[in-house]
Design goal:
single chain, alpha/beta, Rossmann fold, 2 domains, 5-stranded parallel beta sheet, 9 helices, 5 strands, 12% strand, dephospho-CoA kinase activity, nucleotide-binding
């Protein structure tokens, strides 16, 4: 089974691309959504996070205290590094279990913004980088998240790996720049992956 990673910075449209692969019948693993689930329900990780960040990491009813953790981690590089070092191994195991449950698929897709930062790319056979120009990303994010300012968005983007680096390291690039059609790009990659799987078989 081929394992295809999809990455790109905030606002490039990774989720839209992944929905297209899902419509083609390809299982999609959303690392961000699964990370939130694992942080809520993985008892071992909950103990590790509580030990590292204090009992405030979770609310009294067991929910993840996202605001507290975000403030603790994102304004302190060492805390952010610690948080990632605790969460990523558990999400990695969750992904491995998920792959095992999708063995009948010709290939699977994993969506992860931090594909390179978390070293998750090492589990993938090929990587797709989704690209959109900065001004397009900012416009999308201001529409999607009206509570955020342009300064907030630029601060988030500045902390992510540069798009040029992601594109240089990826085997494929999808341009979601509101100029080029997405569907033909996704279909071409889909057909190529299917052909590659059949060639292996």
């Amino acid at each position: 089974m081929l394992k295809i990673g999809i990455t790109g910075g905030i606002g490039v449209g990774k989720s839209v691309v992944c929905r297209m692969f899902a419509l083609l019948g390809i299982p999609v693993y959303d690392a961000d959504t699964r990370a939130k689930w694992v942080m809520r329900y993985d008892e071992a990780l909950k103990q590790e996070l509580t030990a590292a960040f204090g009992p405030e990491a979770y609310t009294p009813d067991g929910e993840l205290n996202r605001i507290y953790l975000a403030q603790a981690a994102f304004h302190n590089p060492e805390n952010l590094k610690l948080l990632n070092s605790l969460v990523h191994p558990h999400v990695g195991k969750d992904f491995t279990d998920w792959v095992e449950s999708n063995q009948t698929a010709p290939y699977i897709v994993k969506e992860a913004a931090l594909m390179y930062e978390s070293e998750a790319w090492r589990q993938m056979d090929e990587i797709i980088a989704v690209f959109a120009p900065m001004e397009v990303r900012i416009k999308r994010l201001l529409q999607r998240d009206p509570h955020r300012t342009q300064q907030d968005i630029e601060a988030i983007i500045s902390k992510q790996l540069k798009e040029e680096d992601k594109m240089a390291r990826a085997q494929h690039v999808i341009y979601n720049d509101d100029q080029q059609l997405l569907i033909p790009q996704v279909l071409q990659l889909h057909e190529g992956f299917l052909a590659k799987v059949k060639g292996v078989e």
